[in-house]
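Narrative of accomplishments. A recurring question from our advisory board has been how the design workflow behaves on a single, concrete structure rather than in aggregate. To address it, we present the structure tokens for one chain from the evaluation set, followed by the sequence designed for it. No filtering or post-editing was applied between the two.
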């Protein structure tokens, strides 16, 4: 449909039809069983007319059901406008991949794009049009449950993943490629910085901090073409995001140039009342529409009060028309006017969902996300070794993680199953352990298995419900029963390999003495196979942390790119009168970018091709990396920069680039980076984005701590 036809269509709509285009309802309202509709109808005060005209649907899937609902919807709609079907496809549809925090730890944007492409295919053939992904919220506090849904603590890395995920979901042309989904970037803005790490809590930060660290991920997703933006639950400068006109009209629309659809998060428009900026639903509707919220998800402030606001002149009708036009443009971009059922295909759905190829991809990507935190030489295992596999995660299929909506636990591969495929020398515990209960029978069974083995694999961690939305934790240690089991098994004298399933960085100081620690996150459907591939050395671990692990919760929020202070800890950590704790270091237990492999990679001969550059020049950085181990290794070479003197205080280091290189045993490679003036820019006091003249330090290494460095100077050309 041409643009002028869409404008004409808006003109043909009644005010009621326009307002209902702004309403999003859950799949409950479109069930075949009309009795199930009575409750939601009453709760939200909706009419049958509202439902048959609501512009979008949330959480409906399955090709047959999607086709039925779309057909009935269009038959009832006076103008035959199709509905949009949206859902949370976060790290897989039916084939579940690692949680985004694990995906971020792969440092592989190619893996992220592949995950998104497969997720889009499975969801599209099942009738969906839009995914509420990627979440690009920068995260620094592991107490917050939704860190699992982010790719980490660094603005640059998050931006790279944001671009890859959007491209994976959307491809090049949504109208032509019906195997893709429209991407919705969320949550705008700064949802990842709630006070105290408590979900839905207040966010308080300066505009400069917002622009420098929190907005780049959203901007990268928008530059990649994301079609939608979701509002966040939190406040931004004291104003809830969903009613924040400056945030959406000024920053998003005007400065970022976004002309797509803005959708509220679940119930967020009505929550303006609870926030205390709206006295009632009418005022909430006014604030949201003036802020630029096009779709109201699962509350009815627009449906009940927008017409009244228009009639009294409080809201201009052009705001309503603009919102409706954006929604119709999205439907047109998806090709729904010509092909209302789009990719939904009952027969193809059977072939595509959880296919062999998709499971293989999930296994490969899960292995890339796994991070080896400790290893005293006990790994990799030999397939001839007798291995006790015990602990609550040993035979658990609870490895999908939160936001695995269509994933099925009974289709997931457990660690025990994966290891038994590798070796006939696996000794499981006869009585499985529980995550929170440790009976005498469990202890006895675990110790018996350990006594008959040469080495112990102890599978610990969180259950799915312990991370994700509304899953903040003040104590991020393992449950005490799991620590007790570790201590009892340590008393056997057998080496213990701890594997962890979890959705956040944990305080694992109580696991001191483990021979190896393997961070597997929630790895998804093929998790047990992928983890076994790592344990037996069929895959050399290549994951690197995208979020720091603290020594204890008292350090959080903890992140690598801290600002310097007037009394720097780094210069004299033994001095009392510096910025420090008395009882723990300032450093993370496992820092950003950290991860071990089964091969030692040596860095040497860091070189810059010049010591001074102008704004129009670049510096070539080279470093030699050598694999001195026996295994093929994928090494993530990381480049950081420090601005030594800036207009405002600058971080002690910032990731600016990285490259993954494959090295066979004994191989040397020279890795090359290019630094331009653009990479030296930052947000100044007046909110401009520019660089300063002066000295800079460039650092290269395998993580944010172990770095070699050289210096250079930026000199600007005078006009």
């Amino acid at each position: 449909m041409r643009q002028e036809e869409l404008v004409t269509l808006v003109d043909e709509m009644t005010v009621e039809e326009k307002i209902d285009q702004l309403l999003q309802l859950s799949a409950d309202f479109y069930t075949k069983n009309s009795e199930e509709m009575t409750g939601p109808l009453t709760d939200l005060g909706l009419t049958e007319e509202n439902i048959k005209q609501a512009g979008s649907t949330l959480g409906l899937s399955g090709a047959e059901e999607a086709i039925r609902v779309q057909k009935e919807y269009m038959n009832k709609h006076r103008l035959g406008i199709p509905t949009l079907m949206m859902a949370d496809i976060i790290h897989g549809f039916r084939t579940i991949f690692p949680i985004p925090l694990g995906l971020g730890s792969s440092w592989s944007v190619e893996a992220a794009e592949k995950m998104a492409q497969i997720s889009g295919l499975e969801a599209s053939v099942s009738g969906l049009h839009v995914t509420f992904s990627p979440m690009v919220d920068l995260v620094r506090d592991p107490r917050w449950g939704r860190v699992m849904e982010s790719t980490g603590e660094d603005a640059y890395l998050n931006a790279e993943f944001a671009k890859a995920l959007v491209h994976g979901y959307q491809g090049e042309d949504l109208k032509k490629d019906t195997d893709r989904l429209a991407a919705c970037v969320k949550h705008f803005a700064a949802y990842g910085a709630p006070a105290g790490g408590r979900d839905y809590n207040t966010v308080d930060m300066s505009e400069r901090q917002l622009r420098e660290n929190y907005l780049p991920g959203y901007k990268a997703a928008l530059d990649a073409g994301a079609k939608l933006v979701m509002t966040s639950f939190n406040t931004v400068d004291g104003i809830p995001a969903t009613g924040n006109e400056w945030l959406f009209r000024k920053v998003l629309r005007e400065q970022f140039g976004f002309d797509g659809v803005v959708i509220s998060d679940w119930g967020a428009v009505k929550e303006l009342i609870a926030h205390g900026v709206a006295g009632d639903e009418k005022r909430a509707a006014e604030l949201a529409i003036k802020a630029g919220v096009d779709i109201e998800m699962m509350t009815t402030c627009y449906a009940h009060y927008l017409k009244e606001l228009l009639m009294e002149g409080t809201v201009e009708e052009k705001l309503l028309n603009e919102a409706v036009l954006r929604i119709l443009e999205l439907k047109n971009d998806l090709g729904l006017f010509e092909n209302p059922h789009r990719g939904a295909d009952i027969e193809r759905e059977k072939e595509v969902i959880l296919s062999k190829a998709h499971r293989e991809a999930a296994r490969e990507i899960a292995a890339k996300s796994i991070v080896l935190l400790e290893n005293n030489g006990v790994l990799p295992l030999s397939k001839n070794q007798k291995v006790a596999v015990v602990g609550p995660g040993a035979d658990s299929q609870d490895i999908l993680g939160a936001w695995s909506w269509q994933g099925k636990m009974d289709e997931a591969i457990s660690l025990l199953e994966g290891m038994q495929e590798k070796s006939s020398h696996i000794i499981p515990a006869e009585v499985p352990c529980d995550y929170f209960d440790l009976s005498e029978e469990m202890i006895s069974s675990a110790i018996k298995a350990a006594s008959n083995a040469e080495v112990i694999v102890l599978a610990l961690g969180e259950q799915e419900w312990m991370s994700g939305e509304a899953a903040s934790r003040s104590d991020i240690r393992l449950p005490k029963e799991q620590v007790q089991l570790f201590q009892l098994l340590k008393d056997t004298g057998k080496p213990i390999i701890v594997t962890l399933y979890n959705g956040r960085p944990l305080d694992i100081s109580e696991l001191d003495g483990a021979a190896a620690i393997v961070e597997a996150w929630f790895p998804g459907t093929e998790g047990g196979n992928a983890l076994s591939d790592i344990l037996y050395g069929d895959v050399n671990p290549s994951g690197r942390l995208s979020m720091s692990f603290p020594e204890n919760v008292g350090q959080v929020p903890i992140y690598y790119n801290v600002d310097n202070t007037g009394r720097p800890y780094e210069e004299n950590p033994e001095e009392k009168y510096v910025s420090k704790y008395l009882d723990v270091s300032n450093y993370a237990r496992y820092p950003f970018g950290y991860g071990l492999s089964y091969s030692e990679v040596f860095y040497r001969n860091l070189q810059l091709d010049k010591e001074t550059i102008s704004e129009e020049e670049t510096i070539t950085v080279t470093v030699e990396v050598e694999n001195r181990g026996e295994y093929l290794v994928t090494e993530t070479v990381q480049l950081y920069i420090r601005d030594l003197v800036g207009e405002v205080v600058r971080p002690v280091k910032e990731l600016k680039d990285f490259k993954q290189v494959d090295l066979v045993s004994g191989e040397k490679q020279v890795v090359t980076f290019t630094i331009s003036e653009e990479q030296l820019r930052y947000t100044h006091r007046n909110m401009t984005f520019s660089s300063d003249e002066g000295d800079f330090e460039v650092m290269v290494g395998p993580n944010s701590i172990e770095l070699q460095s050289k210096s250079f100077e930026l000199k600007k050309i005078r006009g």
